[in-house]
Amino acid sequence: MPAANRPSVLVFDVNETLLDIEALRPHFHRIFGDAGVVREWYGQLILYSMTVTMSGRYTDFSTLSRAVLQMMSDFHHVSMTDEDLNDLGTAIRTMPAHGDVADGLRMLADNGYRLVTLTNSPPHAGATPVDNAGLSGFFERQFSVDSQRAFKPAPQLYTGVATQLGVPASDCMMISCHAWDTLGAQAAGLAGALITRPGNAPLAVPALPQPDVIATDLVDLASQL
């Protein structure tokens, strides 16, 4: 990436970009009889989070997650207990980081980038999922959409991070494995870097902005930056 266009702040998505949602597969296999339902659940959760924001409403991501799980249990015709929901909630808060994440973050920090996170997940009274994954030491701040009562890719979430850090939006780059996230950030004036985790790829539409950087993982991202 040309030095003139290089950002000073890297804003990281958390779920799936840093933390591995595939770790939830055993729970979905036990409840639904199909570990692959984890992808269906996550897709539905993102769909309804966007719907909630577009409708001018709000409920926190954890509450919405439980409701989507209950909705899915209805149309999959499986029984889901409070214990199942609680176990899944604990598993979601303690997902491990992808194997490349710590090395990639260390490389980026060593090269002088300011690192922060922006997640749909609400703040926790105790440790955050980033804390539980052993990554909190890399980040200057952990931002949640909850303070603005809207979900990504609402533009005020991205510009709000820049404002709170005291930098122009153009000095920030959103790092995510979700094309809808990088698109939202780019529409708000940030740069965008897409991490092509399995199941994620660029959205190749000529009329839409493409990621400024496409990387296979965070080590590759650090090398390109």
Automatic annotation (TrEMBL):
Recorded hits in InterPro entries, A to Z, give: 2-HAD, HAD-like_sf, HAD-SF_hydro_IA, HAD_sf, PGP-like_dom2, S-2-haloacid_dehalogenase
User: What keywords were assigned to this record?
Assistant: Hydrolase
Which Gene3D superfamilies does UniProt cross-reference here? HAD superfamily/HAD-like, Putative phosphatase, domain 2
| Keyword Heme belongs to the record | no
CDD domains attached to this UniProt entry: HAD_L2-DEX
Q: Name one GO molecular function term.
A: hydrolase activity, acting on acid halide bonds, in C-halide compounds
Per its UniProt entry, which superkingdom is the organism in? Bacteria
Protein family per UniProt: Belongs to the HAD-like hydrolase superfamily. S-2-haloalkanoic acid dehalogenase family.
Q: Which NCBIfam families does the entry link to?
A: HAD-SF-IA-v2, HAD_type_II
Q: What protein name is recorded for this chain?
A: Haloacid dehalogenase
Which source organism? Mycolicibacterium agri (Mycobacterium agri)
Name of the gene encoding the protein in the UniProt record: dehII
